[in-house]
Amino acid sequence: MSPFSYLVVLTLTLASASAIASAITGNAGTYVAGPPKTMTLSAREQFLQGHKAARAAVGLPPLVWNATLQLDARRYATELRTRCSTDPLQAWGTEGVYGRNLFKSEGFGSAAEAVASWVSEGRWYDAHTGECSAPEGKTCAHYKQVVSRATTQLGCLRRMCVFSDDTVAVCVYYPLGNDNGEQRPY
Ligand SMILES: *[C@@H]1O[C@H](CO)[C@@H](O)[C@H](O)[C@H]1NC(C)=O
Which segments constitute the SCP domain (predicted)? Predict the structure, then answer.
């Protein structure tokens, strides 16, 4: 190897080593300074945390995940994703036994967004009077199920629709809260 080519090789080696070093420094800096990445939460954690926050805001304990309820939510969501609709299914076995909240979004919707859509109905609910001032076609029922004192457990599932990129989600609750929509949830 001539002295000249040795120099070229050494220069290239130094250049790539410093590129790697700066990439490592850059990544480390981003990691330390960056906000917590909520995207890394599983759907289950998003469902749980959304409910926990809404319930804590009115002094209620969090709900506990239940695999039996999740199975019911899975079966229900499997039906919904074919129709890609939140129209309730007829003659469902656990109707009236479990509470149920349904969600649909155009395109991708996260579990956190599903819970947020239910919780957002709380702006129409007056805890002092127990009245719901939701506009025509809207309700406070999903919110009232989220913050039902009677309910202690839940299981949920989020699925993409079969024939589109839209999303459906189902949460199933036990014991049932807000059965007739007239009792105060807490
Ligand atoms: C989960 O829910 C089912 C149905 O309500 C109930 O029978 C079961 O005891 C629950 N499991 C736990 C661990 O609490």
Answer: 42-181
